[in-house]
């Protein structure tokens, strides 16, 4: 198998026919040496029916159905684990990433690269809010983490078997796939493209999922927020020292220091800081707990290739 195309799909029934039609054209030159893997991430609409229907006309297509919604990154991981190709191409189901770029990416990989990622030079049809939060997210993530994660790139990329196996050997449950590829290293290069608006349907990333995705990424790739507590303690010690000078001076001069406002302010400020640091600690501890449980990431309930119901993920 030369190329595997992996697409996570959640409630994408309208997109599937367009997606398959465009992908078929793109992989046509590779014939039987290409496979298209559509992972149904616990959709509640007709996505699985669409995948099965598409399979009748497209012999290269394979559908994988997860037992429940596990989120974009896990669905993608499920597809990556099932992929058999020497080169693996991943994209979103909504056709925001042009599949036609595969040819160019293959060309770059021929020149010896292991990861060719798409960099969004422009984002069309996305709300100001989405673009602004994405902009802040990539910059904050890079400022905090020790890994250089390419800015403004998604999971749209072509990777070699070598790079993929490296990423799949990482056992963590918090999957932040693009960061994991960045961490894995190998020879990487970006290719600029213009991100189209969503072809059909609406975004499957509501604010709640976006926040989860961002906190997962930050906690998985940085421990810097934990150092926040230490920094804040120095700041509050400094502040207390200044207050002490003021209070001592008033005592010496037989003046009472006026005001409950300053007391209330100090209490609420410092309890805010304390709760914030506790919250940050909690985020990490919660994730430690999830990692420690070591549950399988997902279960496959249906596979158009066979009746596998065991987790594909092999646990050590
Ligand atoms: N997706 C998924 N599971 C989810 C949410 C999203 O498999 O829980 C898929 C979705 O079908 C799409 C991709 O992840 O193929 C990216 O989602 P979307 O296009 O909605 O995100 P956006 O482009 O708005 O950030
Ligand atoms: Mg999209």
From TrEMBL:
Membrane topology note: Multi-pass membrane protein
Primary localization class, coarse: membrane
Location of this chain's protein in the cell: Membrane
SUPFAM superfamilies in UniProt: Nucleotide-diphospho-sugar transferases
A molecular function GO annotation: glycosyltransferase activity
GO cellular component terms, semicolon-separated: plasma membrane
Glycosyltransferase 2-like domain ranges (all copies): 4-167
InterPro entries listed in its UniProt record: Glyco_trans_2-like, Glycosyltransferase_2, Nucleotide-diphossugar_trans
Keywords assigned: Glycosyltransferase, Membrane, Transferase, Transmembrane, Transmembrane helix
Any Pfam family hit: Glycos_transf_2
Transmembrane segments: 234-254, 260-285
Name used for this protein in its record: Dolichol-phosphate mannosyltransferase
Source organism (scientific name): Roseovarius marisflavi
């Amino acid at each position: 198998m030369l190329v595997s195309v992996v697409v996570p799909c959640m409630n994408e029934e309208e997109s599937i026919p367009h997606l398959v039609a465009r992908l078929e054209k793109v992989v046509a030159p590779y014939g039987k040496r290409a496979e298209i893997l559509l992972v149904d991430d616990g959709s509640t609409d007709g996505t699985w029916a669409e995948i099965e229907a598409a399979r009748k006309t497209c012999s290269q297509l394979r559908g994988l159905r997860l037992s429940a919604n596990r989120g974009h990154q896990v669905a993608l991981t499920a597809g990556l684990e099932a992929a058999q190709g020497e080169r693996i191409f991943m994209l979103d189901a909504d056709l925001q990433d042009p599949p036609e770029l595969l040819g160019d990416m293959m060309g770059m990989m021929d020149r010896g690269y292991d990861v060719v990622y798409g960099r969004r030079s422009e984002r069309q049809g996305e709300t100001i809010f989405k673009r602004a939060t994405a902009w802040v997210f990539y910059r904050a993530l890079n400022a905090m983490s020790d890994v250089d994660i390419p800015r403004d790139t998604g999971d749209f990329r072509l990777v070699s078997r070598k790079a993929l196996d490296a990423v799949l050997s990482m056992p963590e449950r918090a999957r932040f796939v693009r960061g994991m590829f960045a961490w894995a290293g190998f020879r990487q290069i970006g290719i600029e493209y213009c991100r189209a608006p969503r072809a059909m349907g609406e975004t499957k990333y509501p604010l709640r999922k976006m926040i989860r995705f961002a906190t997962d990424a930050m906690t998985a790739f940085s421990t810097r927020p934990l150092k926040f507590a230490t920094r804040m303690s120095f700041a509050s010690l400094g502040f207390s020292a200044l207050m002490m000078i003021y209070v001592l001076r008033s005592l010496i001069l037989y003046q009472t220091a006026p005001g409950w406002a300053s007391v209330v302010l100090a209490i609420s400020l410092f309890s805010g800081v304390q709760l914030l640091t506790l919250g940050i600690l909690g985020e990490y501890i919660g994730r430690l707990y999830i990692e420690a449980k070591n549950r399988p990431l997902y279960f496959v309930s249906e596979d158009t290739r066979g009746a596998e119901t065991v987790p594909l993920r092999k646990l050590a």
